[in-house]
Amino acid sequence: MSRLDEAFADGPAFVPYLALGDPDLESSLEYIRALDRGGADVIELGLPFSEPIAEGPTIQSAVVRSLSGGMTPTKFFDAVETLDVDAPLVCMTYYNLVYQFGDEEGPRPFVERAAEVGIEGFVVPDLPAEEAGPLREACDEFGLDLIFIVAPTTRGERLERIMERTSGYVYVQARLGVTGARADVSDQTGASLDRLSRWDIPKAVGFGISSGEQAREVVSAGADGIIVGSALVDIVAEGASAGSQTGSGDVAEGHENGDPPAVVADRLETLARELKEGAVAGATRAQSERT
Amino acid sequence: MSDAPSKFGEYGGQYVPEALMPAIEELDDAYQRYVVENEDGFVDEFRERLRDFGGRPTPLQRADRLSERYGTDVLLKREDLLHGGAHKLNNALGQVLLAKYMGKERIVAETGAGQHGTATAMAAAHLDMPCEIYMGERDINRQRPNVFRMRLNGAEVNPVSTGRGTLKEAISETMRDWATTVETTHYVIGSVVGPHPFPTMVREFQSVISEEARRQFDEQVGGLPDSVVACAGGGSNTMGAFAEFVSDDSVDLYAVEAGGSSLGVDEETGVAPNSASLSTGTEGVLHGARTKLLQDRDGQIVESHSVSSGLDYAGVGPELAYLVDEGRVTPVTVDDDAALEGFHRLSQTEGIIPALETAHAVAWLEDATPEQLGDSVVVCVSGRGDKDLESVVEETENREVPNAPDMDVFSGGMR
């Protein structure tokens, strides 16, 4: 059992996402520690790529802020190495960065360095199972997990193939489209979870969860965990742009006049607690419905 | 799955979000049945519409004064005479028709220069399909006439403001739309890029260019040309012009890329002041395929540049990257200034105002050695230049292009 499986062992897991370096490295490290205090069971750290095709506007802007702040794969790993949190860490990025890292061709150097700095696994949204052979191999070599995404459109043989290859947990995409906070819970979630029920691996649902109430609903529909990105990134973005008048998407400048990082960190911790409590409440309800 | 291989050597593949994979498998299957096997007479209907709506075949025309200038037979494959004024309709019509056969209800597409957007908007209007086009804000400003044309054909035009607002961002944004609407929508990609089966399918739809050119050359001149020259951005007119000649070893194939203002990459600013991914790029993964890319050491995609927005892209079709590695296609470059000179030269000597993309292919004839061109060269005139007039006049004024006409006929100047 990997550290990621274990994270789901004691009740529903809360899996927050933040882009490292958003809006600057120092602040984002403080935010990650805040999520850890707030009850994160696994933390997904975004390593920003210039063409994030699976992301909605919120995370696209986070990527722009982080890249304009000078984030690179090397700085990412160096920062993770210094990060002292309880929750196991997953790196979420796009395949070209994985593939280009280091002198050797292929994904091995990236995985090796990730293992060195204490990363437990990867989510790579533009790498379907068909193309994942070399990364899966490197992950196996260094004992890391490779988490695959299952979409509402994933059925039949494709689903079987992906479920055979995913490890740590499976990322259940709650709805079609790109990442982004939503007010409702997709009715596709329950159907997706039903399709996955015969596999033992933990099922973490993401795409659109932003409140404790939604977390409760998703877990009571059978999820083993919830993944929350955009709702948390929104707090970072608001903190960074407070004090500047623009509030536009790509406010790389302006965060120096924003709210103090400690204030933003408190807000993140508060939402983290709400989400974690929501998830736990959902599990209690799911439990009582079953008995 | 179709029988078409998903890779060209190590290039190509399907690097897309899982949500899109079932749609791509469905497309692959539809491509095999309708396009390869002519199920339900798809190919017959496609050819008929290309003729009646598109105006095919386009002529292969001898360019007398260029032939004299270069001491070789220069033949122009006149894709500028295709309906819409560019080769783009071949692919757009094919894909919109295919979407209809597949039972899709809606079309989305990206566009750079606006040529693919206008072609898709025309095809969608012709075949009665709702259509939305994503276009970078910067390109919208550079290509206003094409934006009007798309709107006139009833398409929605969605500005994309991320990044530098050019083709790369428009493709990313169209993929995001498709990831949301995939069950009812077909993404009409505009070039031989993207995940399999797009590069193969778009090449197949565009190969009508070389199919005709090969036959026309044999009828008009006899035998095969010694060389074929086409501009290359994503590479759809390039692959279209080369496809039927690839197995003719005696025919040299030259892909002319935009050299922009310089061939280097500025790692500091993350900008490549060119779009020469075949000539200067390195292997990587972008927009669903492994191919040659303009990227920094870390793998971040850098911003490309060209005076021609249709060539302004950091990637290139994977099959073209493969053919370059194999030594079958020779990549060459032409910078912004030379391309503008080429634009004016073709306008003045042959009475054809070319697209700025095409102007790169025309301009390279100046640099080519007699050995490279041989006794006869086919140049693909991928599009006409009406859409570029505003930017050509402006760029020409800024750069003092030696062969440009004096535009001072307007009292009080241009503005």
In brief, what are we looking at here?
The complex is a heterodimer of chains A (291) and B (415). Chain A has 12 helices and 9 strands.
CATH architecture of the largest domain in chain B: 3-Layer(aba) Sandwich
- CATH C-level of chain A: Alpha Beta
CATH class call of the largest domain in chain B: Alpha Beta
Count of all domains of chain A: 1
Secondary structure layout plus pairing:
The complex is a heterodimer of chains A (291) and B (415).
Chain A: H1 3-7, E1 13-19, H2 25-37, E2 43-46, H3 57-68, H4 73-82, E3 89-92, H5 95-100, H6 108-117, E4 119-123, H7 133-142, E5 145-147, E6 149-150, H8 156-165, E7 170-173, H9 188-196, E8 203-206, H10 212-220, E9 225-228, H11 230-241, H12 261-290
Parallel strand pairs in A: 1-2, 1-9, 2-3, 3-4, 4-5, 6-7, 7-8, 8-9
Helix pairs in contact in A: 2-12, 3-11, 4-6, 6-7, 10-12, 11-12
Chain B: E1 7-8, E2 11-15, H1 21-36, H2 42-52, E3 60-62, H3 64-70, E4 73-78, H4 88-101, E5 106-111, H5 115-126, E6 131-136, H6 137-142, H7 144-152, E7 156-160, H8 167-181, E8 185-187, H9 198-206, H10 208-220, E9 227-232, H11 236-242, E10 252-260, H12 277-280, E11 282-286, E12 288-293, H13 318-325, E13 329-335, H14 336-350, H15 356-367, H16 370-373, E14 376-381, H17 389-399
Parallel strand pairs in B: 4-14, 5-6, 5-8, 6-7, 9-10, 9-14, 10-13
Antiparallel strand pairs in B: 1-2, 2-12, 3-4, 11-12
